Amino acid sequence: MIYYFPLQTLALTGVEVFAVAFFSPIFLTIGPFWRLANNEYVLAFLRLTMVGSLASYHAPNASIRLLILAAGVSSSLLVQTVTWWSGNSLQRFIRIWGFMLGKIMLLVLRIWYTSLNPVWSSQVANTVILTIGFIAAVEQIHSGGDKRKQETNKTGNVIRETASHPHWFLSGIAFGSLMFLTLWIFGEVSLISRWAVSGHPHTGPDPNPYGGTVLLGLAHGLMLSFWSWSSIISFALFLIGLASSAGLLYLHTWSAAVAGNILGTFTMCVWPQLAGRFVSCPHPGKAMSTAMFAYVLELFFCVWCTAYKFVPGGVYIRESSHLLLGFIMLCIGVDFLTGPKKDLSSVFEVKSNQKPFFKRSKNYIKLLLWLLVGVGLLGLGLRYKTYQKKLGQGVPKRDFSAMIWPFRFGYDNEGWSNLEGSANLLNQTGADFITIIESDASKPFIGNHDPTMWLGERLGFYTDFGPSTRDHTWGIMALSRYPIVKSTHHLLPSPEGEIAPAISLTVNFTGKLVDFVVAHFGNEESHLLESCILEKQIAEQATSYIPREDLDRKLQAIAVSKLLKTSSKQVVFLGYITSAPGSRDYIELIKNGNVQDIDSTDQDRWCSYIMYRGVIRLGYARISHAGLSDSEVQMAKFRIPDHVDSYVDNDRIVTDPSQVPEDIHFNPRFGSYKDGHNYVPIHHFHMSTPKYFKRTN
Fold first, then answer.
1. Which of 138, 536, 635, 694 has the most crowded CB, counting CB atoms within 10 A?
2. How many other CB atoms sit within 10 Å of the CB of residue 286?
């Protein structure tokens, strides 16, 4: 949620200070605060605040939502700290395992919601989960009151039944790093596939159904954690985990995915042991505060690796995910190798009369774990079957439409998920080929969801994710109603600015092959250009701005012009190039790329462009965003000529749709021809479109 605000301005906004909510456990280092938090009425209030923060989904705006969420996060960490360090050994054992199984449950729910977190995906899901959470909180308050009166609130007595572990700083850093690693790479089962993805036809494992292997790997890791190991086996396990992390970073497609699955098994394998050592620390406030410090620091480092152009000091951390992952593995490894090699129940000093209860609890935990895995695999199977039924060859036709849209990671201008609205918009356009830029939301600070997979399954389109998540781009995806024969992912030259992604593809339109090149050039540092409102006066203001990424865009235009030049005779370019018509980069694409502009008379453009070669232009439209994103939709219609070496393109522009055949009309749902920008919050044609093209008699 914090990331939404700098996303709008491409700069730090000050709301990042709300990350201090993660540091609420630091108050528990003060004796009176610890005793206060242990009070049954205060703890009840914190539980209700924690659950109530889920209602932020219904908040009227993003700012209020952020405030409510901050209160919920701080309360949840206070509750977690108090409950993990309070109660008898069996209670604490069950609470910690409940936390770990909760992570598996969230993965399973996200499978059923096609990578989305159900709490934030719909009002119905949010209300249901809020109700269940409230019932659970009330049950805990009611059942825990009498017991808590019998417990002491002194930290020393809290860990009396636990094998004491005095190194709270090391354990806190390791546990925080483990928390972040689990979120970063295993926060959703599709993430491994998106780290390993490549172009068609050898894309690597698709997230559906192969996300199931990630779920199985995590479950097997938890099963391995019930064993006790010697120091030699522990060291071997760590080496395997370390090697698999390197493989995920540097190998490709299936090899990288296998390495990621092994890393997942290692990650969950060490979870119970590191959690047990963590709660064995005699200073709960210090330990949890240290863990959250590591977690937040690593999260911000992750942001800096990709958003380095828009944050202070970013140049020093640019594309440094390897350093982050290496540091995390080092922290986990040191704590894992230096502590006792015991399972979680062994960390607690179990009395003989308690052992049967621990044994029974373990059996229930294993049963619940595999029940969750089964439900998750069922969800993947049903989704896969449904998706395969939707996919098809498309109806044979000579005409096709292509569109480009800056997507902003699936969030609208008010900070809410826009996937449902996006699917409706894309479906209404009737586009056969779609490229969406700023599409890689497979990052922890954006939501760890997969808009490419979501839209592909919802629309029944073939997909290309674009350059992998580990390439530190903001993402570019391709959706096609017709099969993608081959594709290649490109990272355009970006010596100064953000990494610019591109894809070159070949699509089979029922026997007719057409190439596409889609690209997202580097952005201006000014949010003026990024918002791309596309009014003439704004474009004029922007042209007076001297860009810092001028070299980047020059090199990127040269690289893309080479891709266009080496493409087949029939190619369509869809690009976000942040340059004015007639500019140096525009001319580079037109002349050296040997393509034509869909409408060279349209001078009120700054970001999105459509160019082509070897096909006949039929129509051109611009559709207002209506708050669904910050940028408009541009689309064009083309006809594939029977003879590519001997055809005549349409050279006359008309705005009266009655002068062209009805089958090439744009959807009248978006209104009719309109001059200027559409300020009404509905999707409507604007900026002197739609236009149609016909041959001069």
1. 635
2. 17
